[in-house]
Protein backbone atom coordinates (compact mmCIF):
# COMPACT_ATOMS: atom_id res chain seq x y z
CA UNK A 1 0.00 0.00 0.00
CA UNK A 2 1.05 3.58 -0.60
CA UNK A 3 1.48 6.09 2.22
CA UNK A 4 -1.81 7.89 1.48
CA UNK A 5 -3.68 4.56 1.48
CA UNK A 6 -2.30 3.74 4.92
CA UNK A 7 -3.38 7.15 6.15
CA UNK A 8 -6.90 6.57 4.77
CA UNK A 9 -7.02 3.16 6.50
CA UNK A 10 -5.87 4.74 9.75
CA UNK A 11 -8.64 7.33 9.59
CA UNK A 12 -11.19 4.52 9.22
CA UNK A 13 -9.87 2.36 12.06
CA UNK A 14 -8.37 4.58 14.74
CA UNK A 15 -10.45 6.67 17.08
CA UNK A 16 -10.11 10.24 15.94
CA UNK A 17 -8.54 11.74 19.07
CA UNK A 18 -5.51 13.18 17.28
CA UNK A 19 -5.15 15.42 14.24
CA UNK A 20 -2.14 13.58 12.89
CA UNK A 21 0.48 14.95 10.55
CA UNK A 22 0.08 13.41 7.10
CA UNK A 23 3.06 11.10 7.25
CA UNK A 24 3.64 7.43 8.09
CA UNK A 25 6.93 7.06 9.95
CA UNK A 26 8.63 3.77 9.45
CA UNK A 27 12.22 3.82 10.66
CA UNK A 28 14.44 5.74 13.03
CA UNK A 29 18.18 6.10 13.18
CA UNK A 30 19.99 8.41 15.59
CA UNK A 31 18.22 11.77 15.46
CA UNK A 32 16.60 11.05 12.11
CA UNK A 33 13.26 9.48 11.21
CA UNK A 34 12.25 8.11 7.82
CA UNK A 35 8.75 7.89 6.38
CA UNK A 36 7.63 4.89 4.32
CA UNK A 37 8.56 6.70 1.10
CA UNK A 38 12.13 7.02 2.38
CA UNK A 39 12.00 10.76 3.10
CA UNK A 40 14.38 11.74 5.89
CA UNK A 41 13.42 14.02 8.80
CA UNK A 42 15.57 15.62 11.47
CA UNK A 43 13.61 14.92 14.65
CA UNK A 44 13.40 17.59 17.35
CA UNK A 45 10.45 15.97 19.09
CA UNK A 46 11.84 12.50 19.92
CA UNK A 47 8.36 11.04 20.37
CA UNK A 48 7.53 13.87 22.82
CA UNK A 49 10.65 13.87 24.97
CA UNK A 50 10.88 10.07 24.96
CA UNK A 51 13.72 8.83 22.76
CA UNK A 52 16.54 10.45 24.76
CA UNK A 53 19.25 8.18 23.35
CA UNK A 54 18.18 8.57 19.72
CA UNK A 55 16.65 5.87 17.58
CA UNK A 56 18.15 2.48 16.86
CA UNK A 57 20.78 2.55 19.60
CA UNK A 58 22.43 -0.83 19.19
CA UNK A 59 23.20 -1.52 22.85
CA UNK A 60 19.67 -0.59 23.86
CA UNK A 61 18.13 -2.72 21.10
CA UNK A 62 20.34 -5.69 21.99
CA UNK A 63 19.40 -5.47 25.67
CA UNK A 64 15.70 -5.58 24.78
CA UNK A 65 16.17 -8.48 22.38
CA UNK A 66 18.06 -10.45 25.04
CA UNK A 67 15.32 -9.82 27.59
CA UNK A 68 12.63 -10.93 25.13
CA UNK A 69 14.42 -14.27 24.83
CA UNK A 70 14.54 -14.59 28.64
CA UNK A 71 11.11 -13.52 29.80
CA UNK A 72 8.90 -10.56 28.89
CA UNK A 73 6.37 -10.61 31.68
CA UNK A 74 5.82 -12.34 35.01
CA UNK A 75 3.38 -10.11 37.02
CA UNK A 76 4.16 -8.31 40.24
CA UNK A 77 3.42 -11.33 42.46
CA UNK A 78 6.99 -12.55 41.84
CA UNK A 79 10.39 -10.89 41.90
CA UNK A 80 12.28 -10.38 38.68
CA UNK A 81 15.88 -9.31 38.22
CA UNK A 82 15.42 -6.38 35.78
CA UNK A 83 12.85 -4.74 38.12
CA UNK A 84 15.18 -5.10 41.11
CA UNK A 85 18.12 -3.66 39.18
CA UNK A 86 16.02 -0.85 37.69
CA UNK A 87 14.62 0.15 41.09
CA UNK A 88 18.10 0.18 42.62
CA UNK A 89 19.51 2.34 39.85
CA UNK A 90 16.54 4.69 39.84
CA UNK A 91 16.94 5.20 43.59
CA UNK A 92 20.60 6.05 43.07
CA UNK A 93 20.07 8.63 40.35
CA UNK A 94 17.03 10.23 41.99
CA UNK A 95 17.97 10.12 45.67
CA UNK A 96 14.44 8.88 46.41
CA UNK A 97 13.92 5.75 48.54
CA UNK A 98 11.15 3.62 47.04
CA UNK A 99 9.82 2.97 43.56
CA UNK A 100 6.52 1.83 42.10
CA UNK A 101 6.65 1.11 38.36
CA UNK A 102 3.70 2.07 36.17
CA UNK A 103 2.85 1.81 32.46
CA UNK A 104 2.60 5.51 31.71
CA UNK A 105 3.00 9.00 33.07
CA UNK A 106 -0.67 9.46 33.87
CA UNK A 107 -0.64 6.26 35.87
CA UNK A 108 2.35 7.50 37.86
CA UNK A 109 0.32 10.62 38.73
CA UNK A 110 -2.61 8.42 39.82
CA UNK A 111 -0.30 6.54 42.18
CA UNK A 112 1.18 9.75 43.55
CA UNK A 113 -2.31 11.11 44.31
CA UNK A 114 -3.31 7.87 46.04
CA UNK A 115 -0.14 7.83 48.13
CA UNK A 116 -0.69 11.44 49.22
CA UNK A 117 -4.33 10.84 50.13
CA UNK A 118 -3.46 7.69 52.08
CA UNK A 119 -0.69 9.52 53.96
CA UNK A 120 -3.16 12.19 55.07
CA UNK A 121 -5.86 9.62 55.86
CA UNK A 122 -3.53 7.71 58.17
CA UNK A 123 -2.80 10.94 60.05
CA UNK A 124 -6.35 12.06 60.86
CA UNK A 125 -8.75 9.37 59.62
CA UNK A 126 -10.74 11.85 57.50
CA UNK A 127 -11.40 11.59 53.78
CA UNK A 128 -11.82 15.15 52.60
CA UNK A 129 -8.20 16.10 51.93
CA UNK A 130 -7.31 18.62 49.27
CA UNK A 131 -4.57 18.82 46.66
CA UNK A 132 -3.20 22.06 45.27
CA UNK A 133 -2.12 21.84 41.62
CA UNK A 134 -1.04 24.61 39.23
CA UNK A 135 -2.82 26.49 36.48
CA UNK A 136 -1.48 25.60 33.02
CA UNK A 137 -0.21 22.27 34.30
CA UNK A 138 -0.48 19.01 32.42
CA UNK A 139 -0.46 15.67 34.23
CA UNK A 140 -2.18 13.26 31.86
CA UNK A 141 -5.55 12.10 30.54
CA UNK A 142 -6.88 9.58 33.06
CA UNK A 143 -9.53 10.89 35.44
CA UNK A 144 -7.24 11.52 38.42
CA UNK A 145 -4.48 13.06 36.32
CA UNK A 146 -7.04 15.13 34.43
CA UNK A 147 -8.46 16.38 37.72
CA UNK A 148 -5.12 17.98 38.61
CA UNK A 149 -4.47 19.29 35.09
CA UNK A 150 -4.82 23.07 35.16
CA UNK A 151 -6.52 23.50 31.82
CA UNK A 152 -10.34 23.69 32.04
CA UNK A 153 -10.65 22.97 28.31
CA UNK A 154 -9.25 19.44 28.80
CA UNK A 155 -11.55 18.78 31.78
CA UNK A 156 -14.91 20.30 30.96
CA UNK A 157 -16.68 17.52 29.02
CA UNK A 158 -15.55 14.90 31.52
CA UNK A 159 -16.81 16.45 34.73
CA UNK A 160 -17.18 15.59 37.53
CA UNK A 161 -13.48 15.32 38.27
CA UNK A 162 -12.15 13.78 41.47
CA UNK A 163 -12.97 16.28 44.20
CA UNK A 164 -11.04 18.65 46.42
CA UNK A 165 -8.54 19.98 43.91
CA UNK A 166 -7.52 23.65 44.02
CA UNK A 167 -5.43 25.53 41.49
CA UNK A 168 -2.70 28.06 42.20
CA UNK A 169 -0.25 29.84 39.89
CA UNK A 170 3.26 28.55 39.33
CA UNK A 171 5.90 30.95 40.70
CA UNK A 172 3.27 32.88 42.68
CA UNK A 173 3.78 31.74 46.25
CA UNK A 174 0.95 33.92 47.57
CA UNK A 175 -1.52 32.12 45.33
CA UNK A 176 -0.35 28.84 46.85
CA UNK A 177 -0.66 30.20 50.38
CA UNK A 178 -4.17 31.44 49.64
CA UNK A 179 -5.23 27.88 48.83
CA UNK A 180 -3.63 26.11 51.79
CA UNK A 181 -5.77 25.01 54.71
CA UNK A 182 -5.89 22.21 57.29
CA UNK A 183 -7.17 19.79 54.66
CA UNK A 184 -4.29 20.27 52.21
CA UNK A 185 -2.46 16.97 51.79
CA UNK A 186 -0.25 17.71 48.79
CA UNK A 187 1.07 20.39 46.47
CA UNK A 188 1.69 19.09 42.96
CA UNK A 189 3.68 20.79 40.24
CA UNK A 190 5.87 20.17 37.21
CA UNK A 191 9.40 21.39 37.92
CA UNK A 192 9.31 22.72 34.36
CA UNK A 193 5.82 22.97 32.86
CA UNK A 194 5.80 21.24 29.48
CA UNK A 195 2.50 21.24 27.58
CA UNK A 196 1.39 24.36 29.45
CA UNK A 197 4.05 26.55 27.88
CA UNK A 198 7.62 25.66 28.93
CA UNK A 199 7.54 27.58 32.22
CA UNK A 200 10.35 26.61 34.62
CA UNK A 201 9.55 26.79 38.34
CA UNK A 202 11.77 29.41 39.97
CA UNK A 203 14.22 28.43 42.69
CA UNK A 204 12.83 30.84 45.29
CA UNK A 205 9.28 29.64 44.65
CA UNK A 206 10.29 26.00 45.01
CA UNK A 207 12.15 26.73 48.24
CA UNK A 208 9.17 28.55 49.73
CA UNK A 209 6.81 25.75 48.75
CA UNK A 210 9.20 23.19 50.24
CA UNK A 211 9.37 25.13 53.52
CA UNK A 212 5.59 25.49 53.66
CA UNK A 213 5.21 21.74 53.09
CA UNK A 214 7.70 20.98 55.87
CA UNK A 215 5.93 23.28 58.32
CA UNK A 216 2.48 21.85 57.65
CA UNK A 217 3.39 18.23 56.85
CA UNK A 218 2.04 18.66 53.32
CA UNK A 219 3.59 16.40 50.67
CA UNK A 220 5.41 18.04 47.78
CA UNK A 221 4.82 16.06 44.58
CA UNK A 222 7.05 16.99 41.64
CA UNK A 223 5.97 15.79 38.20
CA UNK A 224 9.23 15.13 36.34
CA UNK A 225 7.62 13.12 33.56
CA UNK A 226 8.73 15.52 30.82
CA UNK A 227 11.47 17.61 32.45
CA UNK A 228 13.18 14.68 34.20
CA UNK A 229 15.56 12.05 32.88
CA UNK A 230 18.32 14.50 32.04
CA UNK A 231 16.34 16.90 29.90
CA UNK A 232 17.43 20.00 31.83
CA UNK A 233 21.03 18.84 32.26
CA UNK A 234 20.23 17.31 35.66
CA UNK A 235 18.91 13.80 36.05
CA UNK A 236 15.83 15.34 37.65
CA UNK A 237 15.15 19.05 37.25
CA UNK A 238 14.70 19.62 40.99
CA UNK A 239 18.26 18.46 41.63
CA UNK A 240 19.51 21.80 40.27
CA UNK A 241 17.86 23.53 43.24
CA UNK A 242 18.22 20.80 45.85
CA UNK A 243 14.49 21.11 46.57
CA UNK A 244 13.66 17.47 47.07
CA UNK A 245 10.08 16.25 46.66
CA UNK A 246 8.34 13.78 48.95
CA UNK A 247 6.88 12.04 45.90
CA UNK A 248 8.14 12.27 42.35
CA UNK A 249 6.78 11.01 39.04
CA UNK A 250 8.87 10.02 36.04
CA UNK A 251 8.06 8.44 32.65
CA UNK A 252 8.59 9.53 29.00
CA UNK A 253 12.39 9.06 28.57
CA UNK A 254 12.58 6.54 31.42
CA UNK A 255 12.22 3.56 29.08
CA UNK A 256 13.24 5.44 25.91
CA UNK A 257 10.29 4.05 23.96
CA UNK A 258 9.18 1.07 26.02
CA UNK A 259 6.01 2.29 27.78
CA UNK A 260 6.95 2.66 31.43
CA UNK A 261 6.75 5.20 34.22
CA UNK A 262 7.21 5.28 37.96
CA UNK A 263 6.36 7.15 41.09
CA UNK A 264 8.98 7.35 43.79
CA UNK A 265 8.81 8.46 47.37
CA UNK A 266 10.88 9.04 50.46
CA UNK A 267 11.07 6.35 53.12
CA UNK A 268 8.93 8.50 55.42
CA UNK A 269 6.06 8.60 52.92
CA UNK A 270 6.54 4.93 52.06
CA UNK A 271 6.23 3.92 55.72
CA UNK A 272 3.07 5.97 56.13
CA UNK A 273 1.01 5.48 52.99
CA UNK A 274 0.42 2.61 50.55
CA UNK A 275 0.55 -0.96 51.87
CA UNK A 276 -0.06 -4.38 50.35
CA UNK A 277 -3.43 -4.40 48.63
CA UNK A 278 -3.65 -0.59 48.25
CA UNK A 279 -2.29 -0.31 44.74
CA UNK A 280 -1.27 -2.52 41.85
CA UNK A 281 -0.80 -3.01 38.13
CA UNK A 282 -0.57 -6.08 35.93
CA UNK A 283 2.17 -4.90 33.60
CA UNK A 284 3.89 -2.18 35.64
CA UNK A 285 7.63 -2.76 35.86
CA UNK A 286 7.62 -5.97 33.90
CA UNK A 287 10.99 -7.50 32.97
CA UNK A 288 11.00 -6.06 29.43
CA UNK A 289 10.21 -2.51 30.58
CA UNK A 290 12.72 -2.72 33.41
CA UNK A 291 15.45 -4.12 31.16
CA UNK A 292 14.92 -0.96 29.09
CA UNK A 293 15.22 1.28 32.17
CA UNK A 294 18.44 -0.47 33.27
CA UNK A 295 20.05 -0.03 29.88
CA UNK A 296 18.87 3.57 29.55
CA UNK A 297 20.36 4.54 32.91
CA UNK A 298 23.58 2.69 32.08
CA UNK A 299 23.89 4.45 28.72
CA UNK A 300 23.14 7.85 30.25
CA UNK A 301 26.27 7.43 32.33
CA UNK A 302 28.42 5.85 29.68
CA UNK A 303 27.54 8.40 27.01
CA UNK A 304 27.75 11.32 29.46
CA UNK A 305 24.28 12.44 28.45
CA UNK A 306 23.96 15.13 31.17
CA UNK A 307 27.20 16.83 30.06
CA UNK A 308 26.00 16.80 26.48
CA UNK A 309 22.66 18.36 27.44
CA UNK A 310 24.39 21.17 29.35
CA UNK A 311 26.71 21.93 26.44
CA UNK A 312 24.31 21.61 23.51
CA UNK A 313 21.37 23.30 25.26
CA UNK A 314 23.45 26.45 25.81
CA UNK A 315 24.13 26.47 22.09
CA UNK A 316 20.50 25.80 21.22
CA UNK A 317 19.44 28.71 23.45
CA UNK A 318 21.86 31.05 21.66
CA UNK A 319 20.62 30.04 18.24
CA UNK A 320 16.95 30.32 19.21
CA UNK A 321 17.60 33.74 20.76
CA UNK A 322 18.94 34.90 17.40
CA UNK A 323 15.61 33.98 15.83
CA UNK A 324 13.80 35.93 18.56
CA UNK A 325 15.87 39.00 17.63
CA UNK A 326 15.37 38.51 13.94
CA UNK A 327 11.66 37.75 13.58
CA UNK A 328 9.07 40.20 14.90
CA UNK A 329 6.38 37.59 15.43
CA UNK A 330 8.60 35.53 17.75
CA UNK A 331 8.14 37.14 21.15
CA UNK A 332 10.50 35.21 23.35
CA UNK A 333 12.25 31.93 24.10
CA UNK A 334 11.44 30.01 27.26
CA UNK A 335 12.40 26.69 28.85
CA UNK A 336 15.28 24.83 30.44
CA UNK A 337 17.97 22.62 28.92
CA UNK A 338 16.77 20.65 25.92
CA UNK A 339 13.18 21.59 26.65
CA UNK A 340 12.70 24.92 24.91
CA UNK A 341 9.90 26.89 23.35
CA UNK A 342 9.70 29.78 20.90
CA UNK A 343 6.71 31.84 21.95
CA UNK A 344 5.02 33.47 18.94
CA UNK A 345 2.26 36.04 18.70
CA UNK A 346 0.30 33.85 16.29
CA UNK A 347 -0.61 30.16 15.83
CA UNK A 348 2.39 28.06 14.82
CA UNK A 349 0.61 25.16 13.09
CA UNK A 350 1.53 26.40 9.63
CA UNK A 351 5.21 26.73 10.56
CA UNK A 352 5.27 23.19 11.92
CA UNK A 353 3.64 21.85 8.75
CA UNK A 354 6.12 23.75 6.60
CA UNK A 355 9.03 22.40 8.67
CA UNK A 356 7.72 18.86 8.18
CA UNK A 357 7.62 19.44 4.41
CA UNK A 358 11.20 20.66 4.67
CA UNK A 359 12.30 17.56 6.59
CA UNK A 360 12.17 18.75 10.20
CA UNK A 361 9.89 17.34 12.89
CA UNK A 362 8.71 19.88 15.47
CA UNK A 363 5.76 20.08 17.80
CA UNK A 364 3.75 22.84 19.47
CA UNK A 365 2.95 23.47 23.13
CA UNK A 366 -0.39 25.23 23.01
CA UNK A 367 -1.36 27.08 19.83
CA UNK A 368 1.39 29.74 19.82
CA UNK A 369 4.56 27.97 20.99
CA UNK A 370 6.99 25.90 18.93
CA UNK A 371 8.48 23.30 21.25
CA UNK A 372 11.92 21.71 21.00
CA UNK A 373 12.37 18.42 22.91
CA UNK A 374 15.00 16.54 20.89
CA UNK A 375 17.01 13.46 21.78
CA UNK A 376 19.50 14.26 24.55
CA UNK A 377 22.40 13.04 22.39
CA UNK A 378 22.02 15.73 19.71
CA UNK A 379 25.11 17.65 18.58
CA UNK A 380 25.67 21.33 17.79
CA UNK A 381 25.69 20.34 14.11
CA UNK A 382 22.18 18.93 14.56
CA UNK A 383 21.16 22.28 16.09
CA UNK A 384 22.64 24.14 13.09
CA UNK A 385 20.78 21.86 10.70
CA UNK A 386 17.54 22.34 12.63
CA UNK A 387 17.90 26.14 12.68
CA UNK A 388 18.58 26.26 8.96
CA UNK A 389 15.47 24.22 8.12
CA UNK A 390 13.37 26.15 10.65
CA UNK A 391 14.51 29.47 9.17
CA UNK A 392 13.21 28.34 5.75
CA UNK A 393 9.91 27.34 7.40
CA UNK A 394 9.18 30.54 9.34
CA UNK A 395 6.22 31.74 7.34
C1 LIG B 1 3.30 13.50 29.17
C2 LIG B 1 3.09 13.97 30.53
C3 LIG B 1 2.23 13.29 31.43
C4 LIG B 1 1.40 12.10 31.01
O1 LIG B 1 2.18 11.04 30.61
P1 LIG B 1 1.51 9.86 29.72
O2 LIG B 1 2.59 8.84 29.61
O3 LIG B 1 1.12 10.48 28.41
O4 LIG B 1 0.33 9.36 30.46
C5 LIG B 1 2.15 13.75 32.73
N1 LIG B 1 2.86 14.81 33.14
C6 LIG B 1 3.69 15.49 32.31
C7 LIG B 1 4.47 16.64 32.84
C8 LIG B 1 3.82 15.10 30.98
O5 LIG B 1 4.61 15.80 30.15
Q: Count the E strands.
A: 15
Unreliable runs:
none
Give the proportion of residues in helices. Answer: 25-40%
Mean pLDDT: 97
Distance between the termini: 33 Å
CATH superfamily of the largest domain: Type I PLP-dependent aspartate aminotransferase-like (Major domain)
Q: Name the helix and strand elements from N-terminus to C-terminus, one letter apiece.
A: HEEEHHHEHEHHEHEHEEEHHHEEHEEEH
Ligand species: pyridoxal-5'-phosphate
Which CATH architecture of the largest domain is right?
Answer: 3-Layer(aba) Sandwich
Instruction: Output the number of helix runs.
Output: 14
Strand count, sense and closure of the main sheet? 7 strands, mixed
Nearest-angstrom radius of gyration?
A: 21 Å
The shape is: globular
| CATH-defined topology of the largest domain | Aspartate Aminotransferase, domain 2
| Content-based structural category | alpha/beta
What is the CATH domain class of the largest domain? Answer: Alpha Beta
Question: Main sheet: which strands, in order across?
Answer: 4-10-9-8-7-5-6
What does this protein look like?
The protein contains 14 helices and 15 strands. It has 395 residues and is of the alpha/beta class. The chain folds into 2 domains: 3-53 and 304-394, Aspartate Aminotransferase, domain 1 (Alpha-Beta Complex), CATH 3.90.1150; 59-302, Type I PLP-dependent aspartate aminotransferase-like (Major domain) (Aspartate Aminotransferase, domain 2), CATH 3.40.640. The strands form 3 sheets. A 7-stranded mixed sheet has the order 4-10-9-8-7-5-6, sandwiched between helices. A 4-stranded mixed sheet has the order 1-2-3-13. It starts with a helix and ends with a helix. 48% of the residues are buried. Bound molecules: pyridoxal-5'-phosphate (PLP). Residues 104-106, 109, 138-140, 190, 194-195, 223, 225-226, 251-252 line the site of pyridoxal-5'-phosphate.
Amino acid sequence: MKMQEYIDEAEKALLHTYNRYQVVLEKGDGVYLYDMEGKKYLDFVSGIAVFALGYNNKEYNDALKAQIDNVIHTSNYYYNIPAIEAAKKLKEVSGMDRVFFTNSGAEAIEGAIKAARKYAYLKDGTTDHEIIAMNHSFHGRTMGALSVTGNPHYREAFEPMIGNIRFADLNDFDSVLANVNDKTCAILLETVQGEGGLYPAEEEFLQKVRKLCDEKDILLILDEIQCGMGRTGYMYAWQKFGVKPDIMTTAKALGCGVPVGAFLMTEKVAQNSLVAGDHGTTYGGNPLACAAICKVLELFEKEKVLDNVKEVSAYLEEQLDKLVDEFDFIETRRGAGLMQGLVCNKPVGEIINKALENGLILINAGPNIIRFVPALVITKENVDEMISILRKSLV
